[in-house]
Amino acid sequence: MPTARRPWQEELAVVDKTMKAISGLTDPEEIVEQYYNGIGSLIPSNDYVSISRRYAQKPDYVITRSSRFTEHPNPFTERHKLPQLSGGILGDIAYANEPGIITNLPERLKADDPAHFYLQGFQTLIALPNYENGEALNLTCMLLPPGADFDFSIVPMLHWQASLFGRGTRNQVLRNELSNAYAALDLEFQTVGQIQRDLLPSELPNIPGFSVAAHYVTSSRAGGDYYDFFPLENGAWGIIIADVSGHGTPAAVLMAITHALAHAHPSKHTPPAMLLTYLNNRLTTRYARAGTFITAFYAILDPAKRTLTYARAGHNPPRLVRNGKADSLDATGALPLGIEPDQIFEEITVNLHSGDLLLLYTDGITEAMAPARDGSRELFGTGRLDQVLLASGTAAPGDIVRSVLETLDEFSQHAPPKDDQTLIALRCL
After folding, report:
1. CATH code, 14
2. Is 250 part of any domain?
3. Which of 143, 178, 213 is the last residue of a domain?
4. Which of 122, 133, 257, 341 could form a disulfide with 284 if both were Cys (CB 3.0 to 4.6 A apart)?
């Protein structure tokens, strides 16, 4: 047992080496071992017993460490292997909620004390608590044999150091628990995201006289964008694009509900206003809550007639590029789904011509932001989107989608999307 302080230079070197070793550790037990191996050489005691009353009721406690252990279970992962005692000297100390010093241990230690084995043969006990919310849930007791020379003036410093170390170790435990919880939650989010992606079309339809491309990405593991294609009679196709308000798992759940409702529609998904009315009634009465809503654009493409009949529920108007000019399909519109139960949806029919390009998108495209300049943020906007579409000329839909995404990525300086992003491009051949 050390009886005299080392020169301060040597103590500083030991402390520095120990702190460096601890700084790279994440396992609380390894941290404790490094601390005891390093700082323990500076403490004037080789014998100790540590106790914990975490998860226990008075007067119960657990012996977590002892210099008389022949085996050393990990207190963080093998608590069930540790001695569980009740009452006695250590029971009193555990629930005293203050430092404790006993200098006449042989006189106070009874033969039937539950901790007799750990305390027998020692003269002095110095208990240093570690507090959480004012409660000494853990304590370390230094044990000194008879005749030991000890400077009690260092006890306040030892109490301070032990408390800080205990607090740091507990923080690491909490950090690990939080990390594990986050990993488990992230795995759930990944599963939700995969389920959501499985709801989207596994392949794009083959529409005579048209070329189709699509892109879909979420801002997190799961998102609220939705697009789909419905085969109809006489070779027609229903095309829907929708965007649930909000992000993440709540939006993904409502997106899945919207998908299920759309596929459960009892009719042939025509006319467009009928499908939107059906969705709006179901969402308003049962699913949309606390201001949640869904914007949607639904259209029926008739390849034989080259017509597009659409209805819109608060969604971004698609862009129609024709003869070097970009226009919006915004001739009709209504509130988003899930807000007004008696909403009326009107329909408009437009003729399509060879060379026409139609781009459906969600607001994650046009509302993407460039990095802040002078405290202001700039949106990508429909103007930049139209520039890309017009510059693409007669390019195929797949190339146009890539051009939009590349321009958007450059505009946002490669920052990950803050909102879900969906694109559907159709070229009339």
Report:
1. 3.30.450.40
2. yes
3. 178
4. 341
- Do 214 and 129 lie in one domain? The reply is no
Nearest 5°: the CA angle 84, 95, 48 is 60
Shared domain check, 242 and 111: no
List phi, psi (to 5°) of 5: -70, 145
Select from 271, 251, 377, 385 the least CA-distant residue to 317: 385
User: Looking at the structure, do residues 278 and 401 belong to the same domain, yes or no?
Assistant: yes
Residue where the block lists tokens 């862009």: 319
Q: Which amino acid, 226?
A: Y
Task: Evaluate whether residue 184 is within a structural domain.
Answer: no
Instruction: Encode pLDDT of 33-72 as tens digits.
Output: 888 888 888 887 789 999 999 999 999 999 999 999 999 9
CATH number, residue 275: 3.60.40.10
304 and 155 both lie in a single domain? no
- Give the lowest-confidence range in 98-107, 286-295, 318-327, 389-398: 286-295
Q: Which residues contact 325 (CB under 8 A, 6 or more apart)?
A: 390
Structural domain range at position 409: 200-428
Spatial CA neighbour of 345 closest among 264, 418, 281: 281
Looking at residue 385, its pLDDT comes to 96
Residues 159 and 223 in one domain: no
C-alpha 104/C-alpha 102 separation (Å) is 6
Instruction: Tell me the percentage of the chain whose pLDDT exceeds 90.
Output: 67
